[in-house]
Structure formats: structure tokens, C-alpha cells
Design a protein that fits this description.
The complex is a heterodimer. Chain A is of the alpha+beta class. Chain A is 19% helix and 32% strand. By secondary structure, chain B is α+β, with helices and mostly antiparallel strands. Chain B contains five helices and ten strands; from the N terminus they run E-E-E-E-H-E-H-E-E-H-E-E-E-H-H. Classes of the chains: A alpha+beta, B alpha+beta.
């Protein structure tokens, strides 16, 4: 393993990223003797496998992803959840913590309700199943949902969760970040508004160096303005 | 019926020095300016100025295809709408789709259908919107070129970018990238779109007449021009994303590429100081 900083290279669809000895990974394809990038993103190479991490685009569901969804439709024995993906996801009563009688789905989740869930499976025709068999899965009854571009979720979480920890620390809110670009925030209204603005800053300045510092400066500024500030 | 073949030329398109009305040589393109990511609400977008053409392209998707009966359970649909603004031409254009724009929408969506990995998004659709804000001949090429950058910006997987350019014949001379007057009073116009990497042709139309030799010469010229446009597209995309890549370097070194997939922290776990610290733990074990 080398520990030196690796130069990260931007690739564009059609760029050659590997030869006949490389294995094609995520975001790549093989044509003739070369491996090409199919996405706009950053080239990666691990153990002979080359791939591309996307820098933009819609959320694509992946089993195990932690998501925040909104109930879009409901049948007698299932719900359809909008998870910000190209397709709605199905949630079956067997995957919920409740005992749901046939035709009684509305007692637990109504259209428009928000919930926290995990993706159970995605099949080859992209039918998505959700599960709520997870300790943090539940129906959301308070707080608010803030949107962020799914490709910037990693920036919001930060290195080892540093960014999100800082946000929680300064604002004293409860936060959960869904991989699908939805963030649940709960706290008092003023703190939630500050989190929403901070998320906006992260979204806009995701590419600026020293993002953590500018978000910290924003938070410091916000809380110094007010006498009842929650500064720690 | 009017014999359009032998209508008297109203304009002299090439002067005695062999230069065109805007001073270009036959192999010269008009100035091109490209910008990616200009629209916030679209998944991907691009703005292109190509001579007197001003084109805006937006891409949405992949998203669920509507109406439902259009969905293909094996692949995504590529739907394109080419639209000219009423103010894009000198005489106000009646807004809405007409014969010409329906045709252009069709050929452009077919061109993209063969570069996008549609099988990765069954039942979905990728929607491309091309708005011509100002037209000066060659708008379908400009639209295609812009839409291809917008698709890359939207993170749609593709085999390659698509680049496009037109070639034509004016006053009997084969020239690249005709402008309005040359298109109107010239002898032929032939838009070409290609996968620059492989040289596969995605679109080839022709209006007017070219002899086989002229076609061959024109095709060699346009192929070279497409290569140049392709480089500009790549440059524009790199410029847009260069900074974000630098920033990504920092977290990606410690946390391996697919960022920690789940963030299922229970709302209020333990106070931070009591959390499991792998480094400290290891140290204690060694002592």
C-alpha cells in the first residue's frame, strides 16, 4: 500500500482508463483492448481494478443504503415510497416493525408521510424494496427535511463524519443524512434554519478548498449574532 | 415549377482571395464558446455559442418514463425536444413544434440512443431539452454538441461524448460550418455527428448536391473539425469539474472511495468522548 497523496484525475465519458490487464469497475466499460470511462468523474485504481467515482448525477439506489423517503402511494398491503431515485421503492408490511392488517396500511403510513428506511434489494429491472428492520428506521413525525445533491452527500458527512459532527455540535440539532440526498433535521426552528443554510453552503461551495472552515465560520457568525446563542 | 437548381445566386459568398463573407477560410470554424452546468434545477446543462448560434441544453433523468405504456422494461428511453425560440430568427417564428423541429428532435434522440448505456436504466427515460435562443445555421449540430455535454454533466453513462459539425458547398467550394447566408444561398449543407473516439456516424443528413469527390473531401474535413470540437467539449467539462476533484482528494484518502455507505447513527448515541476510538484502543493493547 502506498500512503503518499494520489493525484486524482478527472475523466470524461470515452476516456481510456485502463488496458487489457485492468479489470473494469464501477462507471467503466470494455471495448477492444481498453477500458473506458462511461461517466464524468474521478478515476480510481485498486488492485488492478479501474473505475470512476461520479461527480454528478441522480441518486442510484444500492442495497444497504440508508435513505429518507416520502410515501407516494399506498395499496392494501404495500406502500410506494419516493426515495429521490428514478424509480419508486416498495415497502411491504413484513419489512416494517408493525403488524399491519390487509387494507389497514393507512393507519401506519399515509401518503405524504416521511420515513427513514434502508434499501433491502434492487433487482435487475430496478425494482426497489425497502426495509424498516433497522434500529434507526422509523416514521418521521417532527423536524424537517433538507435536500442536497446526492453526489455531495459525502461532503456533508465529511471525513469520518467530521462535518456532520460539527453541524450537530454547533446547532444542537438531531440530524440524519440519507444517501439519497435528503437530510432530516430536528431541533428548535432557529437551529434548523441555520442547518438548512449550512447545507446550502456545502452544496454551493462543495468544490471550494477549506469547506469545513468556511462552514465553521458561518456557524460561529450565526451564533455570535445572538445573545441566547448555543456556543460550546 | 420553379427550377431551384438554376436560380440565380443572390450573393457572392467567396471573394477573389478565397475568403468567405466573414473572412474565414474554407476549413475554418466559427468561434465557439462552451459552458457546462449553467442551470441549477436541471440534472445536467450546457450553454453553447457557436458563431451566431446561442443554444441552451438541459438534461433530466434518468427518471420514470411517462406515460407508463411508453416504458421499456429492458432499457431507458431517450427523449429529445429541440425547440426554437420565437425570437431566435429575424422573422418571428411561430412557437411550438413544427415539421422541422419534430424531425430534428427525432434524429437527435436517435443519435444519443446509441451512445447512452440505456440498459442500465430499465423503465426510465432520459429527457433532453434543446432550446435555440438565437439561430444562425447549423443549430442541430450546435444542439447536439451542447446536449452531449449536458448529458455528461448529468452523470449519464455514455460510450463517448458526441460532437457534431456541418460541411457544405458554397460557390462550388467545399467549406466547413456554414453560416446563415452561406446555407441559404449555397449549394449544399451536410450536418454530421460522430462518436469521435471510434469514428462511428450517429447523424448524417444532406440538403443539396455534392459529387462523390466533394462528399469525400467534405467528410475528411468535417471529421477533423469534429475532433477539434470534441477537444473543446472535454476542456469545458474538465474546467467545470477540476476544482471539485481537488477538494475530493482530501476525504477520499482516508475513507475509501464509496464513502461510508450508511450513516445510520442512532439519533443520540453516546456523548462523543465515550465513542469507540480504534487508535487509542490499539495503543492500550500494546502497552
Amino acid at each position: 500500500m502506498n500512503s503518499g497523496p494520489v493525484r486524482r484525475e478527472i475523466v470524461i465519458p470515452g476516456d481510456v482508463i485502463g488496458d487489457r490487464n485492468s479489470k473494469p469497475g464501477q462507471g467503466s466499460f470494455v471495448e477492444g483492448d481498453s477500458v473506458y470511462s462511461s461517466l464524468l468523474g474521478i478515476k480510481t485504481a485498486n488492485y488492478g481494478r479501474v473505475g470512476v467515482i461520479r461527480l454528478s448525477g441522480r441518486y442510484m439506489p444500492y442495497p444497504g443504503d440508508f435513505v429518507i423517503g416520502i410515501v407516494e402511494d399506498r395499496g392494501p398491503s404495500h406502500w410506494l415510497i419516493d426515495i429521490n431515485a428514478p424509480y419508486p421503492a416498495a415497502l411491504h408490511p413484513a419489512e416494517t416493525p408493525w403488524r399491519v392488517d390487509f387494507g389497514d396500511t393507512g393507519r401506519f403510513l399515509e401518503i405524504g408521510d416521511a420515513l427513514i428506511a434502508t434499501i433491502l434489494s434492487v433487482d435487475e429491472i430496478k425494482r426497489i424494496q425497502l426495509t424498516m428492520e433497522d434500529r434507526s428506521a422509523r416514521r418521521i413525525t417532527e423536524g424537517q427535511i433538507v435536500d442536497i445533491s446526492p453526489s455531495k452527500v459525502a461532503r456533508l458527512i465529511g471525513k469520518r463524519g467530521s462535518m456532520i459532527a460539527m453541524l450537530k455540535d454547533y446547532t444542537g440539532t438531531r440530524m440524519l443524512v440519507g444517501q439519497n440526498g435528503r437530510v432530516w433535521v430536528d431541533g428548535n426552528p432557529r437551529d434548523m434554519a441555520i442547518v438548512a443554510r449550512a447545507v446550502e453552503i456545502i452544496e454551493d461551495k462543495a468544490q471550494v478548498l477549506g469547506l469545513t472552515e468556511s462552514v465553521r465560520a458561518f456557524l460561529e457568525g450565526e451564533y455570535q449574532k445572538r445573545p441566547d446563542a448555543r456556543l460550546r | 415549377m420553379e427550377d431551384i437548381e438554376h436560380l440565380e445566386k443572390k450573393m457572392k459568398l467567396i471573394d477573389e482571395n478565397g475568403l468567405r463573407i466573414d473572412g474565414r477560410k474554407p476549413i475554418q470554424l466559427r468561434p465557439i464558446k462552451m459552458e457546462v452546468g449553467v442551470l441549477k434545477k436541471a440534472d445536467g446543462s450546457a450553454y453553447l455559442e457557436w458563431g451566431g448560434n446561442k443554444v441552451l441544453a438541459a438534461v433530466y433523468g434518468p427518471r420514470e418514463a411517462h406515460p407508463r405504456h411508453m416504458q421499456d422494461p429492458t432499457r431507458a428511453l431517450v427523449q429529445c425536444r429541440y425547440n426554437m425560440a420565437p425570437f431566435s430568427v429575424t422573422e418571428r417564428k411561430r412557437p411550438g413544434p413544427d415539421r422541422r423541429s419534430v424531425e430534428i428532435s427525432k434524429v437527435i434522440s436517435e443519435a444519443f440512443n446509441s451512445v447512452i448505456f440505456t440498459e442500465q436504466f430499465p423503465r426510465a427515460s432520459v429527457d433532453i431539452f434543446i432550446e435555440i435562443l438565437q439561430a444562425d445555421a447549423g443549430t442541430r449540430c450546435a444542439g447536439l454538441t451542447a446536449a452531449s455535454m449536458a448529458l455528461a454533466d448529468a452523470g449519464i453513462p455514455m460510450r463517448d461524448l458526441v460532437a457534431s459539425c456541418a460541411v457544405g458547398k458554397i460557390d462550388g467550394i467545399v467549406c466547413l460550418d456554414l453560416r446563415k447566408e452561406e446555407d441559404n444561398y449555397g449549394d449544399a449543407d451536410m450536418p454530421v455527428a460522430m462518436i469521435p473516439r471510434t469514428g462511428e456516424i450517429l447523424l448524417l443528413q444532406m440538403d443539396g448536391h455534392l459529387t462523390l469527390e466533394e462528399f469525400d473531401r467534405g467528410f475528411t474535413m468535417v471529421k477533423d473539425a469534429i475532433g477539434r470540437i470534441y477537444e473543446m467539449q472535454k476542456e469545458a467539462l474538465r474546467k467545470r469539474y477540476a476544482v471539485s476533484a481537488e477538494e475530493l482528494e482530501e476525504p477520499a484518502e482516508q475513507a475509501p472511495p464509496p464513502e461510508p455507505r450508511s450513516e445510520p447513527e442512532p439519533p443520540e448515541p453516546y456523548p462523543p468522548e465515550q465513542q469507540f476510538q480504534p487508535d487509542q484502543d490499539d495503543m492500550e493493547g500494546q502497552q
